[in-house]
Amino acid sequence: MSTLNIAVLPGDGIGPEITEQAIAVLRRLESQGHFSLNLEDAPVGGAGYRAMGHPLPPETLALAKASDAILFGSVGDFSLDTLPRELRPEQAILGLRKDLELFANLRPAFVLPELVDASTLKAEIVSGMDILIIRELTGDVYFGKPRGIRHLENGDREGFDTMVYNESEIRRIGRVAFEAARKRGRRLCSVDKANVLETTQLWRNVMTELAGDYSDVELSHIYVDNAAMQLLKNPKQFDVMVTGNMFGDILSDEASMLTGSIGMLPSASLDANNKGLYEPIHGSAPDIAGQDKANPLATILSAAMMLRYSFGLESSALAIEQAVSKVLGLGYATADIQRPGAKMVGTQAMGAAVVEALG
Ligand code: NAD
Fold first, then answer.
1. For the chain, what is the domain count?
2. What pLDDT score does 85 carry?
């Protein structure tokens, strides 16, 4: 039986409560013989700053590097927002992405039948929607140089950034996307602005070249402005979407809001060897921290993604996803996904219900 070496970084706010429930779910699968777990905890974010004076203490980074995958809660602590930027809790996640070279961000956006009314869109538009958005995470205009604000001779000020991608950066995110499409509906839509931007013309060329290696996946291209419209008009037309850092930042948030429930959506950030950091898309929710109100399902589903993408344990991942569907089908709901007739529960009871649904 394989041993999964996982670094557990609970972080701040609701982070410790929700990771505790994800671990309970993993432990149930362990007891059923799916795998054996080697879990090690370390402080991160505000908790890292309070314990060791830095949001990403060297010991935490070393643990993250030594493990096969990272289960991450959330970071963010408003009481530390007056610290210099490099010591603020959110720097931990940026540091981990950079130091571990986590260049591929996978963000599913799906609507489970029980939660179809949580969306702000009409039920018939979102019902059955199941999209995976893959965003390049370490390049593009967010990191390109030169950048800055300069003073012109005429006294005016000018802000400038550089949009840049090289071929190998595009190729490696493209491969992640084609491989992910193979595990799903085999349709990949690449998002660019090739009609205006040279960088994304190269993006389109490289994606088209790569398609030759993946004849079982149907590749299409769409301009980013049209993609933003189509996500609202007919989101069910998409299976996997791949795009650069800035377009992906915006489109993945748009897609997640179609589902209407921030407490449900997981994410993964992967390196070239499928080592990954798995976390819910939401933040540390300080307004409900420590009150047994947080929805743990996004973190539990992040653990399922971990089993699928870092460990290749598809049936274990599916077992978790089916248990979550079953629990929602039974009518359990935390406050954020409350609906008429639902059985309102807290964080711990929701986690326990998923554990029980695993059998
Ligand atoms: P947030 O996502 O923490 O919360 C937004 C709203 O959603 C709040 O009302 C909150 O109660 C609710 N919510 C979030 N997760 C929930 C859950 N699992 N169950 C039920 N309700 C949930 O965003 P925010 O309030 O803007 O930010 C709070 C802190 O989190 C900030 O310090 C921010 O920087 C940080 N943050 C961290 C990450 C991360 O760790 N990757 C991501 C986003 C924000």
1. 1
2. 87
332: left (phi over 0), alpha (psi -120 to 50) or beta: beta
pLDDT tens by residue, 247-287: 999 999 899 888 878 899 999 999 999 999 999 999 999 99
Contact yes or no for 34/66 (Cβ under 8 A): no
Return the amino acid letter for 2: S
81 lines ligand 1 (CB under 6 A): no
Has residue 123 been placed in a domain?
no
Confidence of residue 119 (pLDDT cuts 50, 70, 90): confident
24 C-alpha to ligand 1 centroid (Å)? 22
What mean pLDDT comes out for the span 300-304?
Answer: 98
| CATH number of the domain enclosing 72 | 3.40.718.10
Which of 88, 256, 282 best tests ligand 1's pocket when mutated (most atoms within 8 Å of CB)? 282
Give the pLDDT confidence score for residue 259 in this predicted structure. Answer: 86
**Per-residue confidence (pLDDT) for residue 153, from 0 to 100:** 97
CA 15 to ligand 1 centroid distance, Å: 10
Model's pTM, two decimal places?
A: 0.93
Q: How far is CA 45 from CA 52, 76, 89, 142, in A?
A: 10, 7, 4, 22
Q: Any idea what DSSP says for residue 16?
A: H
Closest C-alpha to 1, from 41, 27, 30:
30
Q: Is 151 contained in some domain?
A: no
**What does DSSP assign to residue 263?**
G
Distance 285 CA to ligand 1 centre (A): 4
Strand pairing class (187-192; 240-243): parallel
Q: What value does the mean pLDDT take over residues 29-38?
A: 98
* The length of the chain, given as a count of residues: 359
> Which token pair is 86?
């490099």
Does a structural domain hold residue 60? yes
Question: What is the 3-state secondary structure of 297-340?
Answer: HHHHHHHHHHHHHCCCCHHHHHHHHHHHHHHHHCCEECHHHCCC
Extended strands (E) in the chain: 3-11, 36-41, 69-74, 104-110, 130-136, 148-151, 157-160, 187-192, 218-223, 240-243, 266-270, 276-280, 332-333, 343-344
Residue range(s) defining the domain that contains residue 30: 1-112+263-359
Residue 240 lies in a domain: no
